[in-house]
Every structure is written in C-alpha cells, then in structure tokens.
Amino acid sequence: MFKTSIQQSCTQINLNLEKHLFMNHPAPDKLRSQGVQAGQKLPDRIVTIVLVATLSRLLINTARRFIYTFAPAIGKGLGVPLTSITSLIAMNQATSILGMFIAPLGDRFGYKLMLVTGMLCLSVGTIATGVLPFYGVLLVTLFLTGLGKAIFDPAIQAFAGQHIPYEKRGTVIGVMEVAWAGSAIIGIPFAGFLIEKGGWQAPFLALGILSIIGLICILIWVPAERNIVRHPGREQRLQSFWKELAGNRPALGALIFIMCISIANDNIFVVYGIWLKGTFNLSILALGIGTIVIGAAEICGESLTALFADRIGLGKAVIIGLCASTGSFLILLIPAGSLTVALSMLFFIFLSFEFSLVTSIGFCTELVPESRAAMMSTFYAASGFGRVIGAFMGGWSWSHGGLHLIAIESALFTFAALLALIWGMGDRS
Predict the structure, then answer these.
(1) Residues whose CB is less than 8 angstroms from the CB of residue 418 and which lie 6 or more positions away in sequence, other chains included
(2) Structural domains of the chain sorted by starting position, each given as residue range(s) with its CATH number in brackets
(3) What is the pLDDT of residues 10-29, one digit of tens each?
C-alpha cells in the first residue's frame, strides 16, 4: 500500500510539474539577452568574465566550507571547544537568510557593485583572521564571508541572465556552479595543506590575498550597467507574494522540504571532520585530501540530475533521491571498519543529497511562476535557516550521543522532507 501511495504521489507530482512547465514558461525568444544574439559564439569578454566569476566563487565557497572540515584544528588553535566553532558556523549560515533582502539590490544599484561588495567582504574578513588570531575576530570573519556569498551569488546569476542568451545560459551557469564542488576537490585540500605547513590561520591569509586579486579582476573586466532598470511597485509585489505563499501548499511544502534536508546535511557536515580524524587518526593534510570524495560525490549528483531527472520526471527523481538519502544516513549506524568504508559512506550521503537538492531546484522555480525570484530567494533562505539549525544540532549531538545520534536525526529529518514534498504536491489536480 505504501509503495502504491508513493507511485501515485510521484505520478501526480510529475503531472503538476508538466502543467506548470508548459503553461508558465515564456518562449525562449522572449528570454534572450539583448547583449548577445542567439546562435552566436560568446564574445571573449563574456568568457573572461565567466572565468573570473567562477574562480571568485571558488574562493567564496572555500572560505565558507573549509571551516567545517578543520573545525577541530581551528578550535584547538583558539583554545575553544568544538561547539564554539560549530556555533560560528551556524552564524555564518544565518547570513543566507539575508539573501531574500539583498538579492533585489543588484537590480537597483547594479550587479558590478554587488560583485565588488561581495569580494570586499571576503577579503576584509579573511585577512582580519589571518592577522588577528582571536575568537571574536573569527566571528566577524565568518559573518563577512557569509554575507559576501549572499551578495555575490545572486548578483552573478542575475548578471548571467542579463548578458547571456537563453539557449547558452544553462551551460554558463552550470560552469559557474562547478565552483561549489571545486571548493571540496581543490579548495579544502589546499586549505589542509596550508594548515599543515603554516598553522590554522594560513588559509584565511591566502584566501584574503587571492580575493583581492579577484576583486581587481572584477573591477577591470566586469562592465558597469549603463542603464539600471527600475522596478516600480517591487515592495507591493513582494507583499503580494507573501500573502500568496501563505495559501500556496506546494510552495510551503517545498520550503519545509529544503529546510529539513539542509538540517540533515549540516548535522553531519559539521562533525565529519572530527569523526574521521578521531577514528582513523588522520593528519590535517590527509583530512583535507579526504574531502575530495565529497566534491566527487557532488559532481556525480549533479551529473545524475542532468542525465536522468528529466527522463524519469522531476517529482519522482526527488523522491528517489530522498529515499536514498534517508538510507545513506542510516548506514552510518554500521561501524566503519576502515577509512575506505567511511569515505564510501560519506560519498553516498553527499551524492544522494546533491541529487535531491539540484533536482528540486528545477521544479521549485515553477511553483510561483509570477514571483520566481522571490520564491527562490525564500527557498535559499529556508535552506540557510535549516543549515543554522543543523550546525547547532550537530555540535550538540556529537557531544551527547556521537555519530549514531546524528545518523538517526539526519535520517528522520530527510524522511520528514519526503513527507513535506508529498504533502505539498500530492493533492494538486
């Protein structure tokens, strides 16, 4: 009966999504950029900007993520317990909630200004901790790096939407998104190397210097908007969106879904470093290299989305991903007899999570098509709120129940995300 119910829910979700996609998507020719005509090769200037943006996002994502892996080393360097570092991580993630208020500023003041501001936050914050090794300074640093990401990401995506033609936009945004997995494959191992050789402050100083270089490149190559488009009545439309959201069951279900899976993911992400280090006595450098597994899993999850999500249906794909993700957390209840087994467990966790997350973005853009930007900024804010809870929860759970408690909590929250998705979409005709 449960299997039949799931199949019916999948079918209903797919039908609802197809209806949204066919009825609410504007024609591609209406979405083409005015700067580059359809069918033309992207100018070298645009290619250079995409490269600069991708490398800048690699720095931003590395600054946000490496502290998870090396929280024990940073805590030891500052002389504070792990829970003090996970609390800072939670504060860093809380800046994601600001995204719904920051995102519209790019339309008002220009995207280049927002990109410069984001990189300025990153450089000032990281150099501060690189020079001043104090807990309070690290708090300010993590707030600034989180704020920089909240400013930079919406601005560069909006810049791509304005300057890249519709039929090339997916490829360009996909290239820039490689910076997320790249932070685990390149950024975090490099941070581990720097900590091993130069102490826990070394990655902050290196990121600060590199971000200044990125800032200069943006100033040189990214053009300023000559005619910034004003949108009268934005505040009224935003208020209308909140009223509509309160009665939009699919959208509410999607927000509960993303919050729950974000709690589940950060719950394990904040402690996997201390788990691997304590269980297998890994060096800082070896721990950094181990995160390549996470980056590989994220790339595989994104690739699986591209290959299979549309073929099997977005709704069914998300449900399959959530079921796999729930199982991946429960596998942590089995003792990892070797480092290979432990890394394989982490690979499966991040593979299924990334597949579920990336697939969900596709259909969440169509839940409130007339307020797409507001819906997605709220979606990411809900994700950030979930990560805040997960970061706080992970530190506390590790201290009180260890990995088994974390595994059970994450599995329950992932299953709750599945129920929220079915609840939100299951009754739409």
Answers:
(1) 257, 319, 322, 323, 326
(2) 37-227 (1.20.1250.20), 235-429 (1.20.1250.20)
(3) 545 444 444 443 344 443 33
